[in-house]
Design goal:
CATH class: Mainly Alpha
Radius of gyration: 23 Å
Distance between the termini: 75 Å
Number of strands: 11
Number of helices: 20
Strand content: 5-15%
CATH topology: Cytochrome p450
Shape: globular
Length: about 500
């Protein structure tokens, strides 16, 4: 048998083995779920697989968690404890923080893309990067630089793009706003992280190779995390087959372009890097290893692009359903900004308390990261009495928590920004453990304030100028599996110039 025939035969033999093994494992999962899960409502999942009672997996988890007396379920068959209990979340992120690292399983899924970056490591490496990033992201000059990047991208690209579509026949200006927001946030995070402009928001130009490769790599890494049997993707990786082959090619492209940017900055010299405000240039003063630099900055790309785009997509969908909220934002914006032409200043954005509340309320219902998992290093007992065995995956679920009546009251499913305002109309935050959208404790998001600033900047600028509606009657979001909340098929929006 010649080598090519042997290779083909081996490939199909592997596919047959993987398919059979996965089917067998799934059958065991369905048959054992009722007996192995200590939550009586888990049995309903078997039938819902066929009835499709839930549009999204996270809605099913929210359903189960609502019906659990403790707000916690234990799905033994996949070794996962899932909780929407505020005290448990505080325990994970603060009280027993050292006992709940990301763990090796998580690091393996993202390791090829993020390497030793801050979002993929634990222990001393994480503490070092955390301290370094905290110093840089807390710098006034860095925050001012980030705001300038966002404002220019809105004014020079985002507004002209939407104006060109809204100028067509009324009702004919349709865009996928999720795609627009992903392009926008990729441009801004690349400028901020690398000092490089990929120009993704120019729809007349082909999207950059870097953006395409980065999208492919992050999507395929997310698919690893959703695989029912991790052994399958690991075997495919070992033999360089299928999705793992595509992932390897995409990561090679990301590495090549990242290395090129790093080399160019090295050639500029430290005296030039010291006066630049992008993260890469600033990190160079503390990190000499190019591989470590690449890992750190690519991690910030992943976090900064997808989360902001996800929040903006959900926000504008909710506004299309709630014209009264849009009207209140416009009134506040008109009062604060007046007839000023251009993007709101940083001080003006700080005065927009209702807009701030609306953004938080959006992320309560549709958090960009719908759930997050840690792995127990040692046996433990959660505050609600749930026993955690060493090695167990423990997941807290912000998406479900936003739908818990015991946390948010009987109107928890309603989009009501007023719940975040005190009697004086000033934004009043909740506990980070009741609202873990930005995590909490030692892992609280360092880019939180900059992300909120970017979302508010975009929202204020677009709501002032345009009206948005959904192009498909009765449309509801269905989320694709991934590291962040991404809507399948995008957000088809009708865009028209503001009429009132």
């Amino acid at each position: 048998m010649d080598p090519s025939t042997l290779q083909t035969a081996s490939f199909f033999a592997f596919l047959a083995f993987a398919a059979g093994f996965s089917a067998f494992a799934f059958l065991l999962y369905v048959l054992r779920l009722k007996s192995l899960c200590d939550c009586e409502t888990c049995a309903s999942y078997v039938s819902s697989l066929w009835r499709k009672d839930f549009d999204n997996l996270c809605d099913w988890y929210a359903h189960l968690l609502k019906r659990s007396p403790t707000g916690t379920i234990n799905v033994h068959v996949i070794g996962n404890v899932i909780t929407a209990n505020e005290k448990n979340v505080e325990h994970l992120l603060k009280g027993r923080f050292e006992n709940y690292p990301k763990g090796k399983s998580f690091s393996a899924i993202l390791g090829d893309l993020l390497g030793g970056g801050i979002f993929n490591v634990d222990g001393d490496s994480w503490w070092f990067q955390r301290k370094m990033a905290s110093l840089e992201l807390g710098s006034v000059s860095v925050r001012a630089h980030a705001f300038e990047i966002v404002a220019l991208e809105i004014e020079d690209r985002l507004i002209p793009l939407l104006s060109s579509v809204a100028g067509r026949v009324p009702g004919d200006g349709v865009l996928d706003m999720q795609d627009v927001f992903r392009r926008f946030s990729f441009d801004t995070i690349c400028k901020f992280s690398f000092g490089v402009d990929p120009g993704c928001l120019d729809l007349s130009q082909p999207i950059s190779e870097f953006a395409t490769a980065f999208d492919t790599a992050s999507r395929l890494c997310a698919e690893r995390g959703m695989a029912p049997m991790p052994l399958v993707w690991k075997i495919k990786r070992a033999f360089n087959l299928g999705s793992e082959r595509r992932l390897r090619g995409a990561i090679k492209m990301v590495n090549s372009l990242a290395d090129e940017v790093i080399n160019q900055k090295r050639k500029m010299g430290n005296h030039r890097a010291s006066v630049q405000n992008d993260l890469l240039a600033r990190f160079m003063s503390s990190v000499d290893d190019d591989r470590q630099l690449r890992d750190i900055v690519v991690s910030f790309l992943l976090a900064g692009r997808d989360t902001v785009a996800s929040a903006l997509t959900s926000f504008f969908w909710l506004l299309s359903l709630h014209p009264e909220v849009k009207s209140s934002i416009r009134k506040e914006s008109d009062r604060v900004i007046g007839s000023t032409i251009g993007v709101a200043t940083f001080d003006q954005l700080r005065k927009m308390q209702y807009l701030h509340a609306a953004v938080y309320e959006c992320m309560r219902l549709y958090p960009p990261v719908q759930f997050d998992s840690k792995y127990a290093q040692d046996d433990d007992i959660l505050p609600d009495g749930t026993f955690i065995q060493k090695g167990t995956r423990v997941t807290y679920h912000p998406y479900a928590m936003g739908r818990m009546e015991q946390l948010w009251g009987p109107d928890c499913l309603q989009f009501r920004p007023e719940r975040w305002l005190n009697d004086d109309g000033v934004f009043s935050p909740e506990s980070l453990y009741k609202y873990p959208v930005f995590q909490g404790g030692a892992r609280v998001c360092l880019g939180k304030e900059m992300a909120i600033m970017e979302i508010k900047s975009v929202a204020s600028a677009l709501i002032q100028r345009f009206d948005f509606g959904i192009a498909v009657d009765g449309w509801t979001p269905r989320f694709a599996p991934g590291l962040t909340a991404t809507i399948k098929g995008g957000l088809p929006a009708v865009i028209e110039r503001r009429c009132c």
